[in-house]
Amino acid sequence: MTNKLDVKRIWWRNVQPGEFYNIERHHRIEGGGGSLYIEIPSSIVPETLDFLNITETDFNSMPSFVIQAFVIGKPQISGPIEFRSKAGGRMRIANQNRQQPSSQRHPAWTYTRNFPRAPDDVANKEEALAYFPDGGLRIFIAKTFDEKYYAGFTKGHRPSNMKDNDPMFELYSNKVGGVINANKS
Question: Which of 9, 51, 105, 124 is the most exposed place for a label (fewest CB within 10 A)?
Answer without folding.
Answer: 124
